C-alpha cells in the first residue's frame, strides 16, 4: 500500500513555464545558444522537443539536440540511411525569449482581468496565451 507522501507525489501535477510554440533559447547542452521553438511538451517527464526554422524547406523544421539513428535497409535494393531525430531536452535547459527585446527571460504568472497570464520578467510583457504555430 502506498504511503501518504507517495500518493501526494502522484497527485501533484507538474507545472512547466514553457508551452508548445514558445520561442526559446537552449541554455545548456551541446546546442547551447541555439534559438528555436517548442514543438512538443511532456510535463510528466519535464521534457521538451525544440526545433528550429529551416530556410531551405520551411515545411520541415530542423531538430535541435539531434541524435542520429542508423536505419538498416529492409529490401535488397534499398540503401541504409542515417536519420536525424530530435531528442527531448529537460525543460530547465531552455529559456523563453522576451517578445520585446529577444533576450532570454524568466516567466512569471499574474492575474489580469480574472485570468492568469504569463509574462516576461525582464520587460513585463504579457506572453500570448496560445502562440500561433502552423499545424501540418
Walk me through what this model shows.
The longest helix is centred in the first third of the chain and has 8 residues, at 4-11. The protein has two domains: 14-97, Roll (SH3 type barrels); 103-130, no CATH class. The chain has one helix and eleven strands, in the order αβββββββββββ. The protein starts with a helix and ends in a 16-residue tail after the last strand. A hairpin with a 2-residue loop joins β10 (107-112) and β11 (115-120). The chain has one helix at 4-11; strands spanning 23-26, 35-42, 47-52, 62-63, 66-71, 81-86, 89-90, 94-97, 104-105, 107-112, 115-120.
What's the topology here?
Layout: H1 4-11, E1 23-26, E2 35-42, E3 47-52, E4 62-63, E5 66-71, E6 81-86, E7 89-90, E8 94-97, E9 104-105, E10 107-112, E11 115-120
Antiparallel strand pairs: 1-2, 1-8, 2-3, 3-4, 3-7, 5-6, 8-9, 10-11
The total of beta strands comes to: 11
**Describe the biggest sheet?**
7 strands, antiparallel
Distance between the termini: 45 Å
Class by alpha and beta content: mainly beta
- Topology-level CATH name of the largest domain: SH3 type barrels
Shape: flat
Order of helices and strands: HEEEEEEEEEEE
Q: Total helix count?
A: 1
CATH class of the largest domain: Mainly Beta
Radius of gyration, taken over Cα atoms and rounded to an integer in Å = 19 Å
